[in-house]
Amino acid sequence: MSSNQNSNTDNTYLRFLQLAKAIQNLPDGQILDANENALLEAIALRWFEQKSMTVREAIGLSELGSPATLHKRITRLRSKGMVEAFNQPDDKRAKYLIPTEKTLAMFNDFGKKIVVVASSAT
After folding, report:
1. What are the pLDDT digits (tens) for 69-103?
2. Smaller CB count within 10 Å for the chain: N or C?
3. Three-state secondary structure along 21-90?
């Protein structure tokens, strides 16, 4: 065992991952598999950058799965209330994906947990 494994600052991220996993596994928590979570994070990051992701862009994220698989994941995220799809008023051809208030609240909660874990490590 290296001395780094005992350092509070070195373990902060690992403790956060452990906490996040525990939160996601709570009975009233939103159950997302790792692939749904990765897609949700990609959509949310694009939104955070003030650039909404189109469905076409989302199903093109080949590192997260095939287009058919990604389309199913988008459908599941929508049915779970985690993302919304909308059209721009001037272009009805493209559908855009954005995180819902439910998703933003979940990420906000995770952010608060990160602060708690980080502050307890110092």
Report:
1. 999 999 999 999 999 999 988 888 899 999 999 99
2. N
3. HHHHCCCCCCCCCHHHHHHHHHHHHHHHCCCCEEHHHHHCCHHHCCHHHHHHHHHHHHHCCCEEEEEECC
Residue pointed to by tokens 């469905």: 55
Q: Is 93 helix (H, G, I), strand (E, B) or coil?
A: strand
Q: Which tokens hold the place of 18?
A: 């452990």
Q: Quick check: 91 and 100 in contact, CB under 8 A?
A: no
- pLDDT, tens digit, 9 for 90 and up, residues 6-39: 555 567 778 777 777 766 665 555 578 889 999 9
> What domains can be seen in the chain, in order of their start residue?
31-121 (1.10.10.10)
